[in-house]
Amino acid sequence: MIYESYGKITDDLYAIGHADLPAYLLFSEQPALFDAGMTYMGPRYVKDLKDRLGDENRLRFNFLTHSHFDHAGAAPYLKKKIKGLRIGAHRLAAETFAKPNAVELIRNLSRNAEALHASDRGHEDVTFYDPHVDILLEDGTEIDLGGGLLVRTIATPGHTRDAVSYYIPKLKALLAGEAVGGLNVRMNVHPSFLSSYTDYCASLEKLSALAPEILLLGHHHTLTGEDARDFLRKSLDQTKTFHARIQNYLDDSHGDQAAVVQRIYQEDYVKAKLIRQDERPYLINAAAKVKTVAEGK
Known about the structure:
The protein is 41% helix and 21% strand. The protein is an alpha+beta fold.
C-alpha cells in the first residue's frame, strides 16, 4: 500500500506535521521523532507532539537523517521548546551544523518558505542555528527506547555524505530520509544521488536487503508490504537509468554541466511538472547530480 505520510501508521508509529514535510513519531518508553522538516514547521510539530503525547516534553530524542534544510530545519526550535530533548545525527552532520556558511545557507533556503507560511509559525522565532548534536551516530549504532523498540542506525551516504537511515526491527520499519529518493507526481521514483552515485547505489542495495514491511520516505509517502520492497528495487533501477540519461546529455553537450542541468530542468520541471519542490533547491540538487556523474563519483 502507498499512502500520504500523515497520521497513524502503526500503534507505535505516527507521521506528524504535513505529508510534504513529515516527521515520524515513535511511541515508546522514550519517545523519539525522526527528522525535523523546514524551520517554519517547528510550531506545527510541537502542537502535534502535544496532541499525540499529551505533553511535548515527553519527547526524548530527535534523530536526523541528514543535514539538509528541509530535514533538520526545525531541530533547533524543537530543542529550544522541549526540555531535555537530545539531537542525534551523523558525525558529518554535526560538523556541517557547526560551519557558519552552512548555517547561513540553511537560513537562506528557509526564508522563502517562512514568508509563504507565516501563518503557520505565527510570531515564533524559527531562525535556524546550530542545534548542537548530542548523540553522534555511526553505522550500526543502536539505541534502546524501551518496550522492545530498538533503533538501529544505518550509514547510507550518496544523497549526502552525512546521510543515515533508521531501522526498527520490531516493526520492520525503515526510515530512509532521502537515501532512497522519492515519488514524483506520476508516482515514479525520482532518484537523489547528490554526493555520490556509487555510494547511493550501494546504500540502496544495503537497504533492499532489509526487506522492510514499512518504508517511510523523506517526503509525501509511506509504503507498506510488497510496495515498500518494490520501491527499493525500482529506486535502484531508476537511479541507473537517470545516471545514464545524464551521461548521454553530457556527451551531447561536450561536458557542459550547466547545459545539462537546464535541459533536465526544462524537460522534468517546466514541461512535465514532475517534481514537487521549490525551483531553487531543485536546481541546486540537479546541478549536484550532474556534477556527480560528470566527475565519476
